[in-house]
Amino acid sequence: MNISANKKTIGSEEWCSFPALGLHAIRARVDSGAKTSSIQAFNIQNFHRDGVSWVSFEVHPIQKNRRTVVRCERAVIDKRVIKSSTGLTETRYVVSAPLKLGDELWEIELTLANRDSMGFRMLLGREAMNGRLIVDPAEVCLMGDITDEKISELYGKKKTTKNGLNIALLASNEELYSNQRILEAAEQRGHNIIFLNVMQCYMKLDATKPEAHYRGGKLLGNLDAVITRIKPSATFYGTALARQFESMGVYTTNTSTAISQSRDKLFSLQLMLKNGINIPTSGFANSPIDTKDLINMVGGAPLIVKLLTGSQGRGVVLAETQKAAESVINAFKSLRANLLVQKFIKEANGKDLRCFVINGKVVASIERSAAPGEFRANLHQGGTASVVKITMEEKMLAIKAAKVLGLQVAGVDIIRSKSGPLLLEVNSSPGLEGIESATGQDIAGMIIASIEKKLNWQI
């Protein structure tokens, strides 16, 4: 007897639909290694209807497109702890909905997960396929392909609002996840937004009529706000441009002064201490002759050696012995590099907190864990992130740190120690991918909403 006679063969990718959810077409990655199917979801809100737990959520059904949004509601059938392929463990809502694949329609379970950073908006797991489907991994879309034109027809063309704010995103790489999210969030809220490459802007210095221009001679004279996301290597020119926009009366999310203060790690730590914010015991010196005393200042090895100009975890070294510490410090100093030495907080176990602050409020927090073999939590180097509930003391520390530097948008990094929370550093251009993926929150939308509030803009 051929047990597969009544089963249909599908490829490694297939177009699915969920008529009851209003999802006319969503491309799924077929993964028999995954038990449960999952679908991309954000702005997830739990509520009760007739005594039953329900959940509302929004879906971006089209790959590489966050402008098309479908809002869905479904009864909750379960909450499960799921470990993703990236090692992230999180509790997800589980809902049930009829899946249409080809001519077949049957009920399947779906976990709700933020898959914006992944290639596919849906993952089809083996529970949904059992007894019905066989997978041929060498093929794709055996149940039928759908053209871009058909997708546009199914979801309709997005209507744009022309009466929104005129916003510019001042950054270096338009393709970065964070920048794409901000551009899309502004459009979704009805604003006109443009991307400005820092190095393709130039300015006219004039006491009565200062101007900013963009490549091709375009005059940037009709802006309501500029979102300043200046990368470290572009700090000097980027802050000069921010000052120019400020002189033109344009609101900047992070001012030139705030960005400059945050980028000077030594100065920013001195400001924190002056304002009563605790940091790991740190030392700074210019002469290699003082290396041993510098090490003793922070309690000896092990200790952290940190370049003042480093970013995203680069230029940070753990020296585990006195000899190693002396070697690293003297090597950096021979290159005339400015550096800090900092007490190593062993009890943190390679974990730290990232608190995202917008206009004096912590809107999201995650705990970052170091990759195996690493001493520092860094998502750019294989670290993982999970949602965490922070204490009131940690929340107030994050808010105060951003306020001390004058930052309206900031990523504040905190480490937990035996003596309480300690500030590591404050980032004036924090990334969105890690924290949005872990929390499922629309941080980009919150940034745009904060601009609306500052400018008293209403629909």
Task: Briefly summarize what is shown.
The protein has helices spanning about 125-130, 150-155, 175-190, 235-245, 255-265, 265-275, 290-295, 320-335, 390-405, 435-440, 445-455; strands at about 10, 15-20, 25-30, 35-40, 40-50, 50-60, 70-85, 90-100, 105-115, 120-125, 135, 165-170, 190-195, 200-205, 210-215, 220, 225-230, 250, 280-285, 305, 315-320, 340-345, 350-360, 360-370, 385, 410-415, 420-425.
Report what the structure shows.
- The chain has 459 residues and is α+β, with helices and mostly antiparallel strands.
- It is built from eleven helices and 27 strands.
- It folds into four domains: 148 residues, Acid Proteases (Cathepsin D, subunit A, domain 1); 97 residues, 3-Layer(aba) Sandwich (Rossmann fold), CATH 3.40.50; 64 residues, 2-Layer Sandwich (Dna Ligase, domain 1); 108 residues, ATP-grasp fold, B domain (D-amino Acid Aminotransferase, Chain A, domain 1, 2-Layer Sandwich), CATH 3.30.470.20.
- The protein has a nine-stranded mixed beta sheet with strand order 2-3-10-4-9-8-7-6-5. Strands 25-24-23-26-27 form a five-stranded antiparallel beta sheet, sandwiched between helices.
- α3 crosses α11.
- The longest helix has 14 residues.
- It is globular.
- The mean pLDDT is 87.
